[in-house]
Amino acid sequence: MKAFPALLVLCYLFFAGCETIQKVAKTQSAQIPEADEEREQRIQLWLSEQDKNQDGKISSNEAILKLKANFSRNDHNGDGFIDRAELGRLADRLASN
User: What CATH number is associated with residue 69?
Assistant: First the structure.
């Protein structure tokens, strides 16, 4: 019978932990759409300013300013273009700073 109170305490801690995890998840999910929107706006701005032929990617000839100076760093697959996925990685990196 002495194990019953300990089991009760463990159950309480388990459910309290689940509630805390749910609260954290709700807080984080509430922030994600804003971050995604900011990320997409950044990508669209870079494309609108630098993608002169509007093919959805930026070549080294189209790149300007810091994107041009750091072109090879951002061209992860080395194909000579910075595509949407690579711009997304850049936006994420800048947002984390």
Answer: 1.10.238
> Is the model's pTM score more than 0.70?
no
Decide if 58 contacts 68 (C-beta within 8 A).
Answer: no
DSSP 19-38: HHHHHHHHHHHHHHHHHHHH
**Tens-binned pLDDT, residue by residue, of the chain (97 aa):** 455 566 555 545 555 554 555 555 555 545 567 789 999 999 999 999 999 999 999 999 999 999 999 999 999 999 999 999 999 999 999 988 8
Do the Cβ atoms of 92 and 74 come closer than 8 Å?
Answer: no
Flag whether 92 is in a domain.
Answer: yes
Counted domains in the chain: 1
Range of the domain at 70: 42-97
